Amino acid sequence: MRFLLFSFSLLLMIGCNNSTYIDQIDRGSGYKYNPGFPELRVVSSSFIDPDGNTFVNIATDIVYGSLIYKKEGDFFVANGTVYYEFINQRNSQDVLNTEQFPVRIQTETNKYSYNQSTYKINRDFELPPGNYEVVVSFTDENTGKQTFRSTYVFIPDPNDAVKNITNIRIFSKSTEEDASFIPSTTYDIQSNIDSLKFVFQVTNNNADAPLTLFTKLLRIESDTSVARPMNHNNYSPSSIQYEGIDYSSTEELNSNRRVLNNPGNVLVEFTYPKLERGNYRIEVYSESDSDDKLYKARDFSIKSPSYPTLKTAKELARPLVYIMTKKEYQSLMALEDDAEVKKAMDRFWLSNIKNSQTAKSVVELYYERVEEANKQFSNFKEGWKTDQGMIYILFGPPWYIDGELKTKIWSYSYNSQEVEKNFYFITPKLKTKYFPFNNYLLQRSSSYYNVHYQQIDYWRSGLILAKDL
After folding, report:
1. Where are the domains of the chain?
2. DSSP character for 440?
3. What digits encode the pLDDT tens for the residues 101-154?
4. How far is CA 41 from each of CA 153, 323, 457, rounded to the nearest angstrom?
C-alpha cells in the first residue's frame, strides 16, 4: 500500500463536463428533514486494506436536538438503535449482511435537546466485491420513531484484471485547535473549515501498463442570490436564477497528473485549503485515449459556517432581507464588526416590537423557520435563499400541498380560488441524475403585493405570534 499526497497549484482554465460519465458522479445526499423524527445523515464508501480484504465504511451523523431525552437519575438520556443492511443490487432479495448497534447519549443538563451538532458513528463492514444498496435506519427508543436513509456503494475486486477507482470520500477539518478530519455526510459542507481532504483507491493489476491519473477541481457556476419579493417579475429563462446551476460553465481551479507504475491497489489522498462558498466538483480520470478509461467525481457545496444552523451575527443578519427595507438591509450588511451587527439587529427588533419578551419569541420563531428552510429546501444554495424557503419563512408550513411533478401549489386557505393565499411553484428542470436538485420557482404576481407587505408588518410588529395570513 502506498500513500500519495497530491498538492495543487492554482490554474485558471475552463473545465470540461462529460455527461457520458454522469453515473460515476457522486453528489452526496440532502437532509430529508421530517419534523418530529430523528435526523439521520449517512455516507458510504468502499476501501481495500493492505491484505486485500474489501470493506464498506459507513459514516453516520445523528442530530442531538432531533432526539427525545428522558430523565434517568442525574442524567438526561436518549436511547436509540442504529441498523445497517447491505443489499446486493443485482438481486434485491439478496441481503448479504445486517447488523444493529445500541446508541446511548446522556448529559447532566438538557442542553442536547436544542443542540444541532451531531453524534457521529463510524463503522467498517467486511463485504465481498460488488455493488450494494446500503440501508441505514435509526430508531429513537424513547418515541419509537424511525428514520431510514439509503446510499449506494461499489466495492472493486482487488484481484480483478480490470482497473477501478473507488468513490471519492470527502473529509473536512474545522478551524478548532487539534481538530481532526471527519467524513462529510451531505452534499453541503460548512465553511468553518481549515481544509478538505479527498481520498480514493485505485486498483491496477497489469504490471505492463502503468496507470496515469488526472485530477481536477472545478468550481461550477451557480445561483447564489436570495429570493426576490413575491410581487416582483419572474426570473428570465436565460438567467442563472432560473437555471440554478450550470454544469456547462465551470472554472478549473486546480489540476494534477500522477503516474502509478506499480501494480496493486493504491490509496490516494490529497488535501486542499479552505474554499470559498460555492459549488464544486472533484474529478479523477485516466488517459482519455484508453479503451478502459476510468472516471469518478464527487460534487459538493461549501455553505455557511454552521450550516444548516446559523450562529454568527453576520449569518443571522442575512435572512432579515425578507422583512427589512432595502435601506435597512444595506446599512446592516455594511457593518463589519460582529458586535455592531448584533446591536443593530437588536435595535431593529426592539424599535419595532417594543416589548423585549415578545421580540425574543418572534426572533426565535423567525430563525426556527430559517433553519427548517435550510433543511427542507437546500440545494445548490442555502435553503433560506430559495423561493420555497422565502415563503416558508414568511408564512410558515403550508396547510396543504397539491400539484404534479413540475408544479406545486402551497395553500394557506381551504379556498383554492383565494389568490393571495395560494402560491404556485414550477420547476424549470425535473430532478434527475443530470440535475439532482429540486428547484421550484414561485410564480410571482403583482396580486401578492398586499399580502407580502402585510406579512412583513406581522413580523415587524410581533403580530406574527397571533396570526399568520
Report:
1. 3-219+254-302, 313-465
2. -
3. 999 999 988 888 888 899 999 999 999 999 999 999 999 999 999 999 999 999
4. 16, 32, 37
